What does this fold into?
Amino acid sequence: MQTSGLLCVLLIWTRLSSSLPSGNGSESGGDTTPLLLVSFDGFRADYLKHYTFPNLEKFFSSGLLVHELTNVFTTKTFPNHYSLVTGLYAESHGILASMMYDPATKKNFSIQNDSDPFWWNRAKPIWVSVEEAGYRAASAMWPGSDVNIQNHTLEYSFRYNSRVSFSERLGNLTQWMTENRAVKFAALYWEEPDRSGHLYGPENTKEMRRVLSEVDDLVGLLMEQLNTTGLWGKINVIITSDHGMTQCSEDRLIVLDKCVSPDSYRLVDLTPVAAIIPLKDNVTVYTNLSGCHSHMKVYLKDTLPDRLHYKNNERTQPIILVADEGWTIVKHGSLPRLGDHGYDNTLPSMHPFLAAHGPAFRPGYTMLSLNSVDLYPLMCHLIGIPPMPNNGSFARVRCVLAHEQCSELALAVGAVIGVLIILTTFTCLFRLMKNRDVSSARPFARLELDEDDDDEPLLE
Ligand SMILES: *[C@@H]1O[C@H](CO)[C@@H](O)[C@H](O)[C@H]1NC(C)=O
Ligand SMILES: *[C@@H]1O[C@H](CO)[C@@H](O)[C@H](O)[C@H]1NC(C)=O
Ligand SMILES: *[C@@H]1O[C@H](CO)[C@@H](O)[C@H](O)[C@H]1NC(C)=O
Ligand SMILES: *[C@@H]1O[C@H](CO)[C@@H](O)[C@H](O)[C@H]1NC(C)=O
Ligand SMILES: *[C@@H]1O[C@H](CO)[C@@H](O)[C@H](O)[C@H]1NC(C)=O
Ligand SMILES: *[C@@H]1O[C@H](CO)[C@@H](O)[C@H](O)[C@H]1NC(C)=O
Ligand SMILES: *[C@@H]1O[C@H](CO)[C@@H](O)[C@H](O)[C@H]1NC(C)=O
Ligand SMILES: *[C@@H]1O[C@H](CO)[C@@H](O)[C@H](O)[C@H]1NC(C)=O
Ligand SMILES: *[C@@H]1O[C@H](CO)[C@@H](O)[C@H](O)[C@H]1NC(C)=O
Ligand SMILES: [Zn+2]
It folds into this structure.
């Protein structure tokens, strides 16, 4: 009796201790696999269905493909690139749009004038955490990476310059990664297919086919360059984007001057999400805008839907206008561009995709969708650094990793083992308690003895 109880205790103890993590954040001797994160701006998810990408297909055929990423509102370049590297919604990281105004300091932000740390400091991007953990990070023009954020400037980085070619950006990154083994995170930004999407509109299949084929060639160049520098297959590579693109038209214009007098408000940002500060007669400004156009939603800051994660920030202006898909807000005049993005982040046309290759990823794994904020906890896990508080979930992405047990068979086996462990544990506990009872309890002694008689042969 006593020995069987002791055995049970031992059994439980070994199970508990073997399930505890044994190492430190940077496992297996601190030899972390480097991660390269690549963004092709404005790569709409369904381009993958409508065009051919021989190189990209080669890239993810032995790796991971997520058909669609649900990105963050506003579906603009800067908010989404900052969400990818912080795991935060726009209201929490503070980069809410391409143009911003801060009422307390009266400062202005635009993507041409973005280097004041003030706008970025609310969040800590992954490259800062990587360097704080004792590694090095490198970036080629990822939005924000040339800014001093949280009193930290990246040494391996470029000032934004659209004239520096893809292969020069990539060449510098791979050089840094091979020269300095401490570089564990590198980010690479490229302007296409966004630039052509705006210029021609995504419905111009001839131009889009041309530019998307060029983008695919760049993926080929990337694989080749990684191969010749010995990095291919050794490092983890993620290729993704910030948002999609939709067709606009001269027939879908919302003209503000027809509804509100131009001197009654200040326009901080215009289309497809307008940020408006009423200057006088704010009730009338709101009323006039509310009845302005059936394809434009008008919100007072407080009435913005929670799902947009956009209202809890002092840089969100008092009135926000959101155009329906494909509609363009102008003050007056004509259509500024044939393609645009920035619309509601539930629209599939606003979603980008994600593909990955490298030792960490489950080969040939595909997922229909994922939240773009979930990428951050995944990347922190890959590098082995603790994530900052964020809006993503590692649980939702863990199955993309080769070493996680996720297949349906593994899940079923896991469930059976789990149930067995629980059953044995309870049996053990029950036995332990019973053993204690035998020596003390009098009224049920007989019952106990009866049972013991049955049990005894089985135990030995
Ligand atoms: C774990 O990491 C911490 C902080 O980086 C370090 O101080 C500590 O020495 C590490 N412990 C082990 C066992 O590696
Ligand atoms: C850029 O922004 C800063 C701070 O908001 C401002 O002082 C400066 O004048 C701006 N520069 C340009 C060229 O607009
Ligand atoms: C920001 O822009 C507004 C409107 O154009 C202007 O009144 C204000 O002075 C600007 N702030 C700074 C710091 O330049
Ligand atoms: C910012 O960093 C520099 C050196 O990198 C340091 O001397 C300075 O004290 C830091 N400032 C703050 C406010 O942390
Ligand atoms: C790095 O970028 C510069 C341009 O900024 C370019 O002249 C140089 O060739 C690049 N280096 C490599 C190795 O590609
Ligand atoms: C890498 O280079 C080797 C030798 O040149 C070649 O056989 C292989 O196909 C290349 N792999 C990729 C992914 O380009
Ligand atoms: C609101 O609309 C009315 C009627 O069109 C117009 O007379 C008035 O000037 C507008 N008010 C403002 C503040 O734009
Ligand atoms: C108008 O402005 C006043 C004072 O700033 C404010 O109390 C009120 O809520 C505003 N109303 C609207 C509709 O914005
Ligand atoms: C997003 O994460 C930040 C940081 O943890 C938190 O403050 C914020 O409340 C989160 N937002 C939501 C909607 O959970
Ligand atoms: Zn973009």
Notes: Confidence is low (pLDDT under 50) at residues 14-29, 438-460. The two ends are 10 Å apart (CA to CA). The domain at 253-340 is CATH 3.30.1360.180 (Gyrase A; domain 2). DSSP finds 15 helices and 18 strands in the chain.
